[in-house]
């Protein structure tokens, strides 16, 4: 059983509409409020060598990334910290606070608990105008498939390319890019934290179109042998780039650096160079 | 080092204003939005014998209680579940869902993770009119000190009075009472989840008045010897009653059942029958 199968259990209880996007969406005055929560903990998410500050930073960053992927502006963060050692608290809180400040959000609440394993749960709240929000749904055949930055760097660190430490330890959520992409009229968006392949399968499962990649266009981490770089870019997890679809007439979106890596097509599924793309990436296994 | 000392570490980083009340408060259109997050886990919070459903119910209830204590209306819940056994998921989610439905809220998002210990983090969001919100601050000398329900029942179960199982396993947050108390003009409020004594010390620390209890007026769990019942009512944790101060001219608040247990006085501190009340109750120790 993997995360996506467990999600089905949840969907049956809370309904499908609340499990499609990276964030829940509710009205807030004239605007929309987006909300998301993420649980991270030592064994699974915090790599050996990370400082408490980096653990706090990453915990905030993954949540701000979900908000960015809806084209929303992060406003507030609540943080629950389960501590195996109380001496970690100041570092974790400072890292989360610095990340929030960097991206315009504020920590407004939290909880502290003693726990057998360092566990951090961040809940992020953002605001977005009703006509600017971007969801996972909305892609149309003929849209461009695009991605910010260079995917695969976080996983590259785990495979021994230590120059990519910062990509994994201090992810930079694409908050400003997300807002500009919302204004620029992208049709569907999510972050690629589980890797490009799984992200595209997620998009394919909620849109009435297929996704066709051109491997030659895929940005890859530099100074890594070709096959491995391609593997990392497609299947590596732990990145927080934005992957999105864009009607060709809206290209280019001003002020955002991104790469066109394919187009959406009639039909369904995910192809690379015309062949089915393997459906694998970062998933917890039970 | 206890929870309240750890809170000082947090206060230095995120600022004091966000650590006083049970919830953070932010504007949302014409209203105020209150938000709170709680981490519960097997070792510390889920008593042996609780079902998965009860674990989910309790996890939602503690968060809804924080919202109730601000006189707000619970609207949304996000729930992050760290599972040591995926078979627990459906029960936990159903319990949380049933509790939310009972009190008018909806689960709108969440996260699932594999974890060495069952850990549930609930984040609750509520709405309240600007002129109805009640905070921990606002008490004035001469106010009545009041409490809903009968404190000490949850702790009574832990001390062998098994008839109080439901109080501990399926707490009923005072959502309707909270809203009516807000409309009824109470001056300060919180829930008593750490026990009456610590709750009053918390209120005393943020108000410019003292709190004087009359032990004869204190409701106590029935069919328990007198001294033990008094001890449970004052120092027992795990209840989710509302403890509040009320200007005498606003008494009685219509439609809410509560007991007057004392009055606020000039000065500071917490007294019972004229003597200082011991400052102890439910606190994690490190």
Structure summarized in a few sentences:
2 copies of one chain form a homodimer. By secondary structure, chain A is an alpha+beta fold. Chain A has 9 helices and 12 strands.
Structure commentary:
2 copies of one chain form a homodimer. Chain A is α+β, with helices and mostly antiparallel strands. Chain A folds into 2 domains: 3-128, PurM-like, N-terminal domain (60s Ribosomal Protein L30, Chain: A), CATH 3.30.1330; 144-276, Phosphoribosyl-aminoimidazole Synthetase, Chain A, domain 2 (Alpha-Beta Complex). Chain A has helices at residues 3-14, 42-45, 52-68, 89-102, 153-158, 165-169, 175-183, 196-206, 226-235, and strands spanning 24-28, 31-41, 73-83, 106-114, 119-128, 144-148, 188-191, 210-213, 242-246, 258-265, 270-272, 275-276. A 7-stranded mixed β-sheet of chain A has the order 7-9-6-10-8-11-12, sandwiched between helices. In chain A, strands 1-2-5-3-4 form a 5-stranded mixed β-sheet. In chain A, a hairpin with a 2-residue loop joins strand 11 and strand 12. In chain A, helix 3 packs parallel to helix 4 and helix 3 runs parallel beside helix 7. The longest helix of chain A has 17 residues, at 52-68. Chain A is globular and about 55 Å long. The termini of chain A are close together.
